[in-house]
Model the fold of this input.
Amino acid sequence: MQGTVDGFSYGVVTPVVAYLMACLGGALGLRCTTRSLLVEHSWRPGWLALGAAAIGSGIWTMHFVAMMGFTVEEAPIHYDKALTFASLAVAIVMVGIGIFIVGYRGATGTALFTGGTITGLGVATMHYLGMAGMRLRGTLEYNTLTVAASVVIAMVAATAALWAAGQVRGILWSLGASLVMGLAVSGMHYMGMAGLSVHLHGSGAAPPGDSPAEILAPMMIGPLAFLLLAGVIVMFDPLMVMGGQADVRNPANGNRTRQAYPVPRSGDRHVPVSRRRTRPRSRTRPGSRTPQNW
Done:
């Protein structure tokens, strides 16, 4: 017996809130990734880890907010806590791998392809692992083509997001990229859900696990509190908000010096210091006051 599936039992409320959660996590993660490209190597892992956690938390929250609107008319739905929160760990770890690749290798073609593929697979794994945590009186069946399309969407969205983070442009650029990223991630979710059908097993006792209402509070409080903390860190970082050069402390003499990586103006591409061309120095020949180029 096929169950009657409804993915929009609360109308447009859950899709809109889910999209905003994906955009929030994406915006914070992209800004943290951009910040990592502008600081000394000792600070880079911290910013990359914060960006990975922000993106992973935003995507995970988006998924389960959207799942609040998912119902099967003939059967109640419960969730297994272990698999539900394991999907959060998978999202953060795999997104972190992709971000660290781009953060240390730069926005090159190979790094973007590798990092985007790993990050996209992480998003898709989070989605289907979270779906595996559902407990209901039936089995979930997926359309293979729809599942494949959702994975491709996740990979393309992740690659585009990492490319946008590697451009090191202004905050408006990151906000625009996060809107596109949120749309792509939400589209990946609903694409995967479009290929889902539920085969019911007949009458029986309610499945074990927590109901959506019972798991909502811990699901929302933890990730949202973290996203709020990450937002505060990004907002009060003058290099991210205002641009310009940041002061860092020289460990040799304790004096504060200008940072080696100035923030480019909006629209400028980031060029590593090691690849910047400098003008040739000039020297003065003996007996001549006119400097000659080498």
Remarks:
- The longest strand covers residues 138-142.
